[in-house]
TrEMBL record:
GO terms for molecular function: iron ion binding; iron-sulfur cluster binding. It comes from the Bacteria. This is SUF system FeS assembly protein, NifU family. Belongs to the NifU family. GO terms for biological process: iron-sulfur cluster assembly. Residues 7-127 form the NIF system FeS cluster assembly NifU N-terminal domain.
Length: 149
């Protein structure tokens, strides 16, 4: 469908040119995430000032979907408060676990940069959520070396 084509285009673009793909010195929050199904790993770095995410980046290795999803995630987080970031994580969680979400709604939320991977390849939920789980761990643990499965 046209919608799937659009999602795939977004994924390919972010896969080819991942945004904010770099490590960060003196990150305020940092976590390592790991997809147990394939062994791929991602690290998420955050700089937070007065509760606002001033910088966010990631590094790691993974499939196209995991990299694209991480890249899209970083784009959606800059300038958000850490509470808003947790809110986006919650929204993402609901969407990937609700199989009835399609079409219009999927598209507009896709613009938030959170859904492309899952909607194009529903069987790849673990790939698409890897960076988000890692972000959640980083924010939840408030220390420099959180880890998550
Ligand atoms: Fe919610 Fe994985 S996205 S538990
Ligand atoms: Fe490993 Fe997708 S196959 S993260």
């Amino acid at each position: 469908s046209e919608l799937l084509d659009l999602y795939q285009e977004v994924i390919l673009d972010h896969r080819k040119r991942p945004r904010n793909f770099r490590s960060m010195e003196n990150a305020d929050f940092q976590a390592d995430g790991h997809n147990p199904l394939c062994g791929d790993r991602v690290t998420v770095f955050l700089k937070v000032h007065n509760g606002i995410i001033e910088d966010v980046s990631f590094q790691g290795e993974g499939c196209a979907i995991s990299i694209a999803s991480a890249s899209l995630m970083t784009e959606s987080l800059k300038g958000k408060s850490s509470q808003e970031a947790e809110g986006l994580f919650g929204k993402f969680h609901d969407l990937v676990t609700d199989e009835s979400t399609h079409g219009e709604e999927g598209l507009s939320l896709g613009k938030l940069g959170v859904l492309a991977g899952v909607k194009a390849f529903p069987m790849r939920v673990k790939c698409a959520t890897l960076a988000w789980h890692t972000l959640h761990a980083a924010l939840a643990h408030e220390n420099k070396m959180a880890t998550t499965e």
